[in-house]
Amino acid sequence: MDQNRQPLDAVVIGAGQAGLAAGYHLARTRLRFEVLEGGPRMGDIWRRRWDSLRLFTPAQHDGLPGLPFPAARNTFPGKDEFAAYLESYAARFGLPVRTGIRVTGVTPADAGFAVETTAGTVRARNVIVATGANALPRLPDAAAGLDASIRQLHSSQYRGPADIPDGDVLVVGAGTSGSEIALELAASHRVLLAGRPTPHIPDPLLRYAGGAYWRFIHNVLTLRTPVGCKVAAGFHQRGAPLIRISAKDLDRAGVVRVPRMTGTAGGQPVFDGGTPADGGSPAVVRTVIWATGYRPDLAWIDGLKLAPSGWPETQRGAVPGIPGLYFVGMPFQYALTSGLIGGVDRDAAYVVKQIERRMPEPSVVAPVLQLGDGDGEDRGGSEAEHSGGGHSGSERGHGGHA
Ligand SMILES: Cc1cc2nc3c(=O)[nH]c(=O)nc-3n(C[C@H](O)[C@H](O)[C@H](O)COP(=O)(O)OP(=O)(O)OC[C@H]3O[C@@H](n4cnc5c(N)ncnc54)[C@H](O)[C@@H]3O)c2cc1C
Q1: DSSP 3-state helix, strand, coil percentages of the chain (rounded to 5)?
Q2: Which of 93, 155, 223, 253, by CA, is between 20 and 30 Å from 178?
């Protein structure tokens, strides 16, 4: 990497949906930027997820700005299709993504940042961190107390039923991942699912009033409304609502629902309110799958103060006290949809607008895309705004894909 050249105006770290949405908006400015992706190929995060995974958001909410997801409304794309979409998205807009370059450190320096990478140091006036919410598996302390004979894996390591040995399986965590994995395994294993199920959004509500529901979570559940602030306060503790599958589906499939796992006794799991919740017989399991979520890994950013959630406090993505450092793709960065595919556009546009404002001298390069008229504020709600495909340089970015 050329270490002596002029600093870039911006470096985006990570080429998932958040980094690519930021790239899309940067490409409509005169700023010089690059997107650095640590993986060999865009979308590998999705390819590595379990084999049967389909998106829980319907296709109309699975597109990034300027390019609707190419599938019929109310269908649920597979994870590999979404990975391919990310690659085609970067190609479609000619985004300057450099794959196979992992960022190992970010240090404020010379009115900007020194971005240390596996290919050398890049200097940039602004940095957008878009490395995702799923960097490190979150495992409870109880994991250490389980008998060595019990096979343990995190949901990020689960691929499919064929890899799970015979015998009872305990899935810990009844959010979307845990519920989907439990349902799939119930066809071949006896499955216990521990935890309080998150509320289920009934299919008819999504099918017939999906646009209204999306507008509610995108435009009402934001940091600008009292109800949004209330939801945001508990967001890191509570999983997202169940879509497509319900507690009834789990019951029908024979999944045994047990309370929260609180610890272990004699190497076996113990649940809230005592030991066994399964008809009186102790829970002796062969496999435990931890569907207990993730935490970010941001220790490599110099001077960044992290809250107990593992995230920094930001003002809609801007880090107070470190001018030029921004995030896109944080859970509830601005709205409940901030961490979702269909919700990331608005935050990306807003952050890029902030960067443009602090970079008064226009850069010497022409924008990758034609300049648009969007200002990045609170777009993405109405169905009408988001119909139609393709991109034209002068159209406004797509926010909600309702
Ligand atoms: C199992 C699962 C299913 C989901 N299903 C849906 C769904 O159906 N609909 C929906 O809207 N949302 C869904 N989500 C939520 C969210 O859309 C995904 O988590 C999504 O991957 C987040 O995108 P991102 O761009 O923020 O981060 P990521 O997709 O994690 O992308 C981050 C990128 O940054 C790269 N990177 C990380 N660290 C570095 C570094 N130091 N240097 C360079 N590159 C780096 C990574 O390689 C990666 O490519 C799901 C999440 C999970 C876990």
Answers
A1: 25, 20, 50
A2: 223
Ligand 1 centre to CA of 56 (Å) is: 14
The alpha carbon of 138 and the centre of ligand 1 are apart by a number of angstroms equal to 15
Residue 15 in domain:
yes
329 within domain boundaries: yes
In the block, tokens 């890899």 appear at 163
Strands 294-295 and 136-137 turn out to be antiparallel
Q: How far does the centroid of ligand 1 lie from the alpha carbon of residue 153, in Å?
A: 20
| CATH code where residue 120 lies | 3.50.50.60
In a domain, 57, yes or no: yes
Same-domain pairing of 19 and 152:
no
180: helix, coil or strand?
A: helix
Nearest CA, atom 10, ligand 1: 340
Please tell me the total number of residues recorded for the chain in this structure.
Answer: 402
Are residues 26 and 74 both part of a single domain? yes
Structure tokens at 64: 């990034």
Can you give the residue range of the structural domain that contains 311? 10-135+296-358
Per-residue model confidence as pLDDT tens digits over 313-347: 999 999 999 999 999 999 999 999 999 999 999 99
Ligand 1 shell residues, CB under 6 Å: 13-19, 36-39, 45, 49, 55-57, 102-103, 130-134, 177, 329, 339-342
